[in-house]
């Protein structure tokens, strides 16, 4: 038996895999190369396919990550995305600061310019010629004075006309017409009045009649500052009787609109049915709104139409247009009130 054991140990080489495994067991987590023999009989080294070896691969970082870090570093070196963005932001912030400085500079210049110009509240002259104001104070002060008087530019006049006249409308006679007269003074002190000009407009503000009237008496006061009448206007004017008849024909059967119409009818020696008269001075709602028992046409236009009329010499066409516009502003209510008043009288 002892001889057989000795022989068996001699026959088994030290490289026997069975004895090797028993004497040197594999440690977990370590890969071992296992010799393999290919078809030609050569020994080829191969890694074992131990499952524990695959777990060790997890401990090592993936090969893709170092590459991505390198790409990121390259981008940073060549002008990375983050650096580029910060550059753009710096440039944008610089432009914003520059714009703010420009705005502040312009605002400061405007304030300095405004300080050098006269304030509108300081230009309070009512009866002073804008030319005199320009010579004494300067062009800006004269401009403010002209604006206050409604004489600033042709645009101001146009805006008044746009309010008072309906541009695309009929130029013929309408059911309601508005009339205004300009007068001159006669007698020792020019206190008595005669008609010098008659103007009539239709319901849309279109002028349908405008004539100067030759004086029937010697004129002692032309009242040019208010009436706008000059000797040459009426010396070549129409005969009074002719004007009187033409006006009477126009007014016949129509609603007559105007301001303080009693004075206009008086100088024309005409009468008109009271129920067909619409006097803007006597209309009670207007008087209540402006809180004035006898409001002027100028006041009514300023408060109710937001336009200025009669700022210098009066114009009978514009005054008639203003009265008509005030009437059309309240036409429905006005006519309803007249109708109710008439019905109440008939009931009594």
From TrEMBL:
SMART domains: EXOIII. Residues 53-62 have a biased composition (Low complexity). Its main location: nucleus. GO terms for molecular function: 3'-5' exonuclease activity; nucleic acid binding. Residues 97-119 have a biased composition (Basic and acidic residues). GO terms for biological process: DNA catabolic process; rRNA processing. Residues 1-119 are annotated as: Disordered. GO terms for cellular component: nucleolus. This is RNA exonuclease 4. The gene is Rexo4.
């Amino acid at each position: 038996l002892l001889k057989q054991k000795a022989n068996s140990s001699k026959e088994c080489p030290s490289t026997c895999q069975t004895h090797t495994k028993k004497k040197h067991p594999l440690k977990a987590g370590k890969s071992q190369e296992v010799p393999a023999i290919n078809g030609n009989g050569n020994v080829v080294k191969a890694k074992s396919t131990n499952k524990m070896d695959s777990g060790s691969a997890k401990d090592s970082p993936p090969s893709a990550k170092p590459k991505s870090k390198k790409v990121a570093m390259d981008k940073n070196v060549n002008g990375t995305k983050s650096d580029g963005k910060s550059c753009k932001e710096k440039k944008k912030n610089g432009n914003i600061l520059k714009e703010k400085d420009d705005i502040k500079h312009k605002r400061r210049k405007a304030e300095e310019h405004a300080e050098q110009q006269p304030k509108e509240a300081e230009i309070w002259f009512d009866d002073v010629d804008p030319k005199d104001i320009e010579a004494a104070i300067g062009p800006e002060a004269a401009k403010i004075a002209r604006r206050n008087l409604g004489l600033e530019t042709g645009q101001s006049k146009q805006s008044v006309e746009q309010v008072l006249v309906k541009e695309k409308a009929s130029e013929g006679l309408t059911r309601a017409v508005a009339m205004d007269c300009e007068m001159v003074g006669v007698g020792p002190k020019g206190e008595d009045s005669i008609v010098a000009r008659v103007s009539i407009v239709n319901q849309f503000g279109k002028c349908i009649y405008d004539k100067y009237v030759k004086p029937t008496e010697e004129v002692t006061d032309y009242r040019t500052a208010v009436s706008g009448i000059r000797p040459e206007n009426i010396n070549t004017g129409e005969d009074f009787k002719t004007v009187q008849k033409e006006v009477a024909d126009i007014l016949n059967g129509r609603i007559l609109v105007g301001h303080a119409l009693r004075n206009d009818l008086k100088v024309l020696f005409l009468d008109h049915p009271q129920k067909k008269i619409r006097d803007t001075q006597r209309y009670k709602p207007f008087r209540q709104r402006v809180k004035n028992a006898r409001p002027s046409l100028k006041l009514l236009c300023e408060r109710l139409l937001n336009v200025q009329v009669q700022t210098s010499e009066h114009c009978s066409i514009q005054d008639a247009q203003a009265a008509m516009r005030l009437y059309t502003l309240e036409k429905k209510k006005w006519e309803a009130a007249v109708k109710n008043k008439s019905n109440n009288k008939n009931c009594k």
